[in-house]
Structures are given as structure tokens and as C-alpha cells.
Amino acid sequence: MTPLDKVGEFGLIGRIQQTVEITQPSTILGIGDDAAILAPAAGQELVISTDLLVEGVHFDLTFCPLKHLGYKAVAVNVSDIAAMNALPTQIVVAVSIPARFTVEAVEELFEGIKLACEAYNVDLVGGDTTGSRAGLTISITALGQVAAGKAVRRSGAGPNDLLCVTGDLGGAYLGLQVLEREKQVWQADPESQPELDKYPYVLQRQLRPEARMDVIHELRDLGVVPTSMIDVSDGLASEVLHLCQASGTGARIFTENLPIANPTLEVAEEFNLDPIMCMLNGGEDYELLFTVPLADHAKLKNHPDITIIGHMVDKSEGANLITKAGQPVPLKAQGFSHFG
Amino acid sequence: MTPLDKVGEFGLIGRIQQTVEITQPSTILGIGDDAAILAPAAGQELVISTDLLVEGVHFDLTFCPLKHLGYKAVAVNVSDIAAMNALPTQIVVAVSIPARFTVEAVEELFEGIKLACEAYNVDLVGGDTTGSRAGLTISITALGQVAAGKAVRRSGAGPNDLLCVTGDLGGAYLGLQVLEREKQVWQADPESQPELDKYPYVLQRQLRPEARMDVIHELRDLGVVPTSMIDVSDGLASEVLHLCQASGTGARIFTENLPIANPTLEVAEEFNLDPIMCMLNGGEDYELLFTVPLADHAKLKNHPDITIIGHMVDKSEGANLITKAGQPVPLKAQGFSHFG
Fold first, then answer.
1. A13 CA to chain B: closest CA distance, Å?
2. Which CATH superfamily is domain B6-147 in?
3. B162-330 CATH fold
């Protein structure tokens, strides 16, 4: 194990730089100068988004392997690019690293970052590495490209548009519940072994989420252009309200349509948690929530990765969850407060 | 004073968003969606750079006003854009904020960020705000534009090129010495008043540095295109070595040519510090170090903002400081270790 101060900041950057590959045609110059140089293709607009992951707020290194953390840090940024209907092209990564870290630990983090770069076809073109007096912080800014005028905003939904979500919901939140329970057990008895093998699905949802770039490509293949889109990072209820607010509409989503995976449902039962609440307020699923014109119903109704969960309505009706009994329940953004 | 958890993340973003103005023609959509949308002008390349400022590593809130800190966080990023010979266009800002902060404190930080945006003609187009279990962290990514092929890298210097630096050096480092001394006095006797009024120049250099965009514009007006460029963030010696390494050259810089301001010299004497060492290894001056062809000598020799400190030589000669007595002393990158 190599202490960080033995290689220093430039040594560390040199080690990371050596293993980085440039594959995007729009990357002219990557890591190693005062800034990277990019040449976006003609007729393209850029999208840019930034996300910060903070130890003790967004992740707990007790149970989060650094490689997974690096992968997740990229995936959550790519998810924002996907939510604009754009293709990710470059990222820059700034990390502040506690002195207790070894060079090998930092390299493991960057292994995960580079794995995600390969998976999403993104170039790592720059960054900053500094010390930290407290925990690890990872700040990633992602760039993407989209044909001029084709970016999808939160604000384009109209009444009667179908409201769709990719994949399934609630898993990441229940993964977190499992990790927190096992941590408490382990803190009480450091000799105990965490029982994690029983929960592969929800743990993967929490520790190593994927951005739904696959769906962006599928929608293009189907000729479906969402009228509005957002990624589900703070829980479904919060995101539906964001689309409604930006678009000036209301929404109706139906309890019986909300997609949940069987392993998620089982863990919810084990923890005595209402699965509907886990889907609405759980957060960190990184699925895409989007609206399409009613005319696209036939194209999406049997799509394996997409569920039609409801539709937009006039603003005056508000945003409601319709229970199995047909009762409307106003949606509230419980979400997740980092400042609580 | 308003506690952060009273307004929450969305409330805080809303407050910041309300006061942000968009002035760049290339900004299509700013804060408020999953990503910002940008449309770079035809024939332009983009440059992108990211910098992280961490409490306890890069700044100390005991003496650093939040407004200055916000300004500085933008300026250091713009300095990287300037060092590519580009004009800054947009920034995104991610902050992790300790619970002890009030809403008003965060707004003060963003006041400084917005002041710098106005000063450098940059749009604040996105960001992320999260909690922090420890100190304040500010991560800024800056974008800039430059005509295709006109970005200046570290790697273009040739032997005989003149080596130039803007402004003067060592001030920021001596400003830090003053702040650290006064902090010690204050910690020993909390009733004492810090003696800061005597040191306006070096304190401004430390607390509120400017990116040298003015010089970028002046060089364009003069028709001077640097062959290589870097910003002086880690001390002159480290930056000269970076240019030499990237360009495959050596360098000779002359002690008697190094620019230092009189107030900086006075503080160096007061602290019994060698002013040459402060210039070579002090860091945080955010001046520009660049090379130009010998033919540009006449254009720059009397320029008030630019000093010719030496010239590049063949790689085999190495990088040396030439003393008044004509003795060569090899340059070493002392720089600044965040991991120490």
C-alpha cells in the first residue's frame, strides 16, 4: 500500500492519466493541460450537468466498495444527460481525498470511473485532485450532445400525454435499508458477518445503478420523442411534481401500474415497509420518467423496459395517485433532505 | 438567519436561480432542468476545466469572507480557461454545505460567485447543492470558447521563445502568511483585533485574486499568439517546469527580472522570507506564464502588465534560475502538497 503523500498530486494524476483512453471524436485534448479541448460536431447542441457525492451524506464506505462508488458517480451524471435525450460524450472528475486513503484505494475508485466511461462511451478529459480534512467527495461534470433543438426538457408535457417510467422503482431505497441494518448489526458485533448474499437485486440497485441510456437508444429506434423527461433520483412523487410544475399540468398516476421488481417487494415485506411509499419516495432509482403523446401508446404499451403509469391532466386537477379503489391521493414531494 | 433545513435543497436552488442572469448567446437553457443546454458558435472549440476548493485545505473561513471565497472559486477556474487562450462562457457550481451554515451565508457565497460571473462575462448555468458532514466544498467547472485550432497548450514552446509572466508574483503567498499569523494571535487571545489594514495588497492577492482575462484580450489586440501557456497556481518554478516538460525544452529565468510588487517585498522582509523563494514556490498568484516567439520582443518589452523573465532553451540545458552573479540554479517544483 502506497501513502498518497509519497506520489503527490502530480504523481497521482500521472498514474490515472496513463490508463485513460480517448474514444470520442469530439475530444481534441484530454487530461494534462490547463483545460481539455473539445470540438462538438456541427449541428449539435451540448448539455452539461454536475453532481456531487459526499461521504457520510450520499455514501458510506463501510459497505460501498470504491469501484462501485466510482461507477455510480459516473452513472448518476450520465443519467442527467440521458434525461435531456442526449448522448454523453465527456466527463471531468474532481475528488477531495482524505489522507487515510492509499494510492491503491484512489486507483480502485478510478477503476470504477473508467469502467463506467467504457460502458457509456464517455471520455474522462480532466479533473482535479486535492486533499480533504474530512471525508471523500466526488464531483463529476458530464457533457453530452444532442441534435440542435432536440433536447427534451421537463417543461414540454401537455394534458393527456402518457406518463411513462423505465425499469422498476424502490429497489435502491430498499438496498439502502439492508445496508443500514447490516451496519448496525456489525457495529454491535464486529465479529458478525453481514448477510448480503440474500439481497443481490436491491443491493445492486443501491450500489451500482445504471443510467438508462439503453432506453434513450430504444426510443430513437422506435421514433418516439418524449415531450418532457426527468431522471428519477429523488423518488417518483418528487419527479412527477417537477414535470407538472415545469409543464404547467397536473398528473394522474395509478397505484396498480407502478412497476416494482419481485425482489424489491420481498425486501419491502421483510422490512414492513409499504412498497408504494418506497416507489414514491425512495429515491436513487435513476430510471427515466417521461411523457409521450397519446398517439405513441401502441409503440410503448408492450415495451419490456417501459411502463405507462398514468397520464398528464389539466393543471387545475393537481397531481394525484389513484388508488386501486379509485381514490385520488395528492402527491407530495417527501424526497430526501441532505440538510436534515 | 434562516436554517438551511427550513428551505431545503429545492428552496435554496430556487432562491439562487431567481437572481441569475443569462447573457451569453451560447446559453440556450440555464439552471432548472436535468442539464443546461448550450449551443457553441460555429467554428469554435470548447475548453473545459474543473477546480475544487475544500475548507481546511484551500481556505479557512476564520478569515476568508464567503463573498470573496465565491469570487475566488470562479476566478481560479476562469484562470484555467484564460491559460488556454479561450474566453470563458459558462460555469456550473456544485457545493456541499455544512449544516451550521445559514441560508444567508450560502447566499453570500453565491453573491461572490455572481459578482465574478459579471466580471468575467460568464453564465452560471447549473449546479448541485448537498449537505456536508464536515466542511464546505466548492466544485466549479468552467467552459470557454476559442476559435478552432487557436487554443494554446503547454506544449508549443520552442528553444529561444521568450518566457513571459503577467502581473507580479509572491503576493498571494505572503497574504496567507499574514492571515495565518493573525489567526494564531487571535486564537491565543480572542479579544485581540487582527491587524489586517496594514496589508491590503497581499491580502487582496490571497483572498480575491483575478483571472488575467485582461491580458488575453490585450495579446489579441497586439496580434501576439503565445506558443505555450499555463496559469501560475502552484508557484512559478512548478509552472516553468510544466511548460518545459510539455514542450520538450529547458528554460532560463533571471532573478533580476522576476516581478514583485513593493508591498509584497515589504511583507517578505517583515516575515524574514526570501522574496525570490516566495515568487518561485508561493503559489496562488493566478498570473499567466507564457512563451512567445523572439520576434514579438518589441511588442511586449514595455508592456505594463507583462514581464519577460527569461527564455526557453534546449532541453539538455535543463530549467535554471540565473542569479545576479550569473550562476545557474536548477529549478525545483516545491509547489504545494495537499496530501502532506
1. 13
2. PurM-like, N-terminal domain (3.30.1330.10)
3. Phosphoribosyl-aminoimidazole Synthetase; Chain A, domain 2 (3.90.650)
Q: pLDDT tens-digit profile of A123-182? A: 999 999 999 988 999 999 999 999 999 999 999 999 999 999 999 999 999 999 999 999
Ordered by start, the domain boundaries in chain A are 4-147, 162-330
* Yes or no, beta carbons of B46 and A38 under 8 Å apart: yes
Residues of B within the annotated binding site for Mg(2+)?
Answer: 34, 49-51, 80, 128, 231, 234
This complex has an ipTM of 0.92
Instruction: Tell me the C-alpha distance between A262 and A271, whole Å.
Output: 14
Going edge to edge, which strands form the sheet with A44-54?
A123-132, A87-98, A137-147, A44-54, B36-38, B27-29
Across the interface, whether the CB atoms of A339 and B9 are under 8 A apart is answered: yes
* Pairwise CA distance, residues A195 & A218, whole Å: 37
Residue among B24, B44, B50 with most chain A CBs within 10 A, to mutate: B50
Contacts of A321 (CB under 8 A, 6+ apart): A237, A253, A254, A255, A276, A280, A328, A329, A330, A331
State the Cα–Cα distance between residues A179 and A159, nearest whole angstrom.
Answer: 41
Phi, psi torsion values for A307, nearest 5 degrees: -120, 130
Quickly list DSSP for B240-275.
HHHHHHHHT-EEEEEGGG----HHHHHHHHHTT--H
Distance (Å, rounded) from C-alpha B209 to C-alpha B218? 19
Q: What are phi and psi of B263, to 5 degrees?
A: -60, -35
Judged against a pLDDT cut of 90, whether residue B82 lies above it is answered with: yes
Looking at beta carbons, which pairs linking A176-179 to residues 24 or more positions away fall under 8 Å? Answer: A176/A206, A176/A284, A177/A267, A177/A271, A177/A273, A178/A202, A178/A203, A178/A206, A178/A267, A179/A60, A179/A63, A179/A64, A179/A203, A179/A206
Radius of gyration of chain B (CA): 21
C-alpha cell at A58: 450520499
Q: How far is B127 from chain A (nearest CA, A)?
A: 6
Read off the pLDDT of residues B100-115 as tens digits, 9 standing for 90 and up: 899 999 999 999 999 9
Name the phi and psi angles at A312, rounded to 5. Answer: -80, 150
Query: For chain A, what percent of residues have pLDDT higher than 90?
Result: 83
Other beta carbons within 10 angstroms of residue A271's beta carbon come to: 12
Three-class secondary structure of residue B196 per DSSP: coil
What pLDDT is recorded for position A340? 42
**Which CATH number does A4-147 carry?**
3.30.1330.10
